[in-house]
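FORM 7B: Structural annotation worksheet

SECTION A. Query
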Amino acid sequence: MTTTEDWTILRLLEWTSGFLKEKGFESPRLEAEILLSAARECSRIDLYTAFNEVASDEVRTAFRELVRRRGEGTPVAYLVGHREFYSRKFRVTPDVLIPRPETEFIILRLLDLVAGKTNQPWNIVDVGAGSGIVAINAALELPSASVTAIDISPAALAVAQKNAVDHEVTDRIEFVEGSVLSSLPPEPVFDFVLSNPPYITTAEYAELDGHVKDYEPKVALESGEFGTDVIEQLIPQSAERLKPGGWLVMEISPMIEARVKELIASDGNFGESHTTKDLSQLARVVSAQRVG
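SECTION B. Predicted structure
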């Protein structure tokens, strides 16, 4: 029997990694480290210099509760209250979608399009801002840009506003509660419309893993029979609000790439759309330039 004194940082990590692996989680060691660093209120790197340290009763109690809830399915990001995105730390709560690495390709595509012109006073709108990761990274990467962040959820906007404070960009981001672009006044017009809209079909949503469906906001995930209910509104509204030569840049599911490109083509206000693939070589971002 292991005694209380034997529960060093290393043993806690090893036991928890095994427990989470048995539960079927993909990155058990990483998750164990994130949870223990949260319980210990330190960085993950600090754990490596404290392997032989015996965890205090307070740390073990806090850690045990986090591991219990993770074992029941609660996402790690919601347990610790933050997630890294584009090498920056962002607050997350169950009111917002957990940031995924794939969404970084929106920022990468934006930077491709402004290459050599990053200091121009771009006017950017982020539709479906959620935790604010796209709007805030756009503001940080383009220091002369003005950004509008729109979301239908006031709770999500509250999270985004806190993240904007954390990253010191509140002076350049306006937060608007509303649906797509129709909630904005006729002016201004934009150089870029960025969006990570909901794009999961109703059928796909029904089959989603419970670790996603039971915890993350449905409004940020599901978008009708074809997964394009929001996108079908976003395309024509973007055409109305973009300057000639401006760009619509949106994340998609690989399964709806063809339909999204058809919708853009049928709108008649955009040039040929461009697909950006993610690290798995799957279609991840579709962009199109406003013509005329």
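SECTION C. Observations
The mean pLDDT is 95. The first helix runs from residue 9 to 22.

SECTION D. Sign-off
Analyst initials: ____
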